[in-house]
Write a structure and sequence with these properties.
The chain is built from 14 helices and eleven strands. By secondary structure, the protein is of the alpha+beta class. α6 runs antiparallel to α7, α7 runs antiparallel to α8 and α7 packs parallel to α9. The radius of gyration is 42 Å and the shape is elongated.
Length: 368
């Protein structure tokens, strides 16, 4: 190869190398540009601040369920922000419990729906019930909450229960609403069956309603070492004196028989014919249908009548009163075509020493 040819070859090789060197950065830049464009195509997530703002707006519009759903989304992305938001809602709830019960109720329900065993929320529910005048429901809610509390919280709850029940009993006693005391203390005793104050209040209410048997039975349930021994002994003395008093009830002559007035379930008046030959008191279907609460059906029984044996329905009514004597859970039969509205039978009369005074037209009842 001539000297001239070699020179031309070297120049060509150098030119190719230079072109390759100059082109290489441009290729790298193009690849980088393509990579950036590819990454920019990914979807952009909604900022946490947008969720926070949305939840706050929904809360301010009292859309509490929607606000809580947004809070759940925020909690997944930013737990710290979510905790702060939730705390502000609970703080607002506490304020509303004293200033706006109308708004506190739906907010409390929303929070409890999501966390039904949260003791702080359940305590606030007790506050709501008290502030809205639902004292009996508040007491029951506090009884239900009690097992979920720690020892220190239980000590506080005990003080609160004592104050609530004491004030409720005092209020009902002033109203002489003895039936309400009976109903409420029976529920409380389901939670604290040896509570001396509940048992005494129940016994005293029975005494006021002249249900001396129930009063004495309740006093027998009192714990041996109770702080109310003096009160219990005084009540027993009152019951004994009351049982020794005779009761004289006016009768209405009806041929060779007598009619007597009775009171069923503390509300319905019914005139019955005294029948010492009837073992169980009977009422007509018309009278039974008017009773509230409805009588408890106990089954069918066969009884003897002047026309032979018949099968009749047996019921238990809430209460039965003649004169000053009242019996709870009283058994009656449903028998039609009896003179008057029913028969007063021996399941009432046999509880007493009784005498039908035909000179004064009175039924005399005294303790056995």
């Amino acid at each position: 190869m001539s000297h001239y040819t070699k020179l031309i070859t070297l120049l060509l090789i150098g030119s190719l190398s230079l072109n390759a060197y100059l082109l290489w950065p441009e290729q790298v830049a193009v690849v980088g540009k393509q990579k950036i464009q590819k990454n920019s195509a990914k979807p952009i997530k909604a900022p946490n601040n947008e969720l926070l703002t949305k939840a706050k707006q929904q809360f301010e519009q009292h859309q509490f369920d929607e606000a809580f759903n947004t809070y759940q989304q925020l909690k997944q992305r930013s737990p710290a922000l979510a905790r702060t938001l939730y705390s502000s809602w609970v703080l607002q709830l506490k304020t509303w419990l004293n200033t706006n019960l109308f708004l506190s109720e739906p907010l409390l329900n929303t929070l409890l729906d999501q966390d039904p065993y949260n003791t702080e929320l359940l305590t606030l529910q007790v506050d709501y019930l008290i502030n809205s005048g639902q004292i009996q429901n508040a007491i029951i809610a506090l009884f239900e909450l009690y097992p979920l509390l720690n020892e220190q919280q239980q000590s506080t709850a005990n003080v609160r229960l004592e104050n609530l029940t004491k004030n409720e009993l005092h209020s009902l006693s002033e109203q002489q609403n003895w039936q309400a005391i009976i109903e409420q203390t029976q529920i409380w005793l389901d939670y604290q069956n040896d509570n001396s104050h509940f048992l005494y209040a129940l016994a005293y209410a029975y005494y006021q309603q002249n249900d001396f048997i129930s009063a004495l039975t309740t006093l027998e349930r009192m714990p041996r070492n109770n702080p109310l021994k003096t009160d219990v002994n005084t009540l027993k003395t009152l019951i004994n004196k009351a049982q020794l008093q005779d009761d004289f009830i006016t009768l209405t002559p009806y041929g060779a028989h007598y009619l007597i007035n009775s009171e069923l379930n503390n509300s319905l008046q019914s005139e019955l014919m005294i029948d010492t030959g009837a073992s169980i008191t009977s009422l007509s279907s018309d009278v039974l249908s008017q009773l509230s609460p409805r009588p408890l059906y106990l089954g069918d029984v066969t009884v003897n009548t002047a026309n032979g044996q018949i099968k009749v329905k047996r019921y238990q009514i809430e209460s039965f009163k003649v004169g000053m004597q009242i019996i709870y859970g009283f058994e009656v039969l449903n028998i039609e075509n009896t003179r008057g509205q029913g028969l007063l039978g021996m399941n009432f009369l046999s509880r007493f020493k009784f005498n039908i005074n035909q000179q004064t037209d009175e039924l005399e009842l005294s303790a056995k």
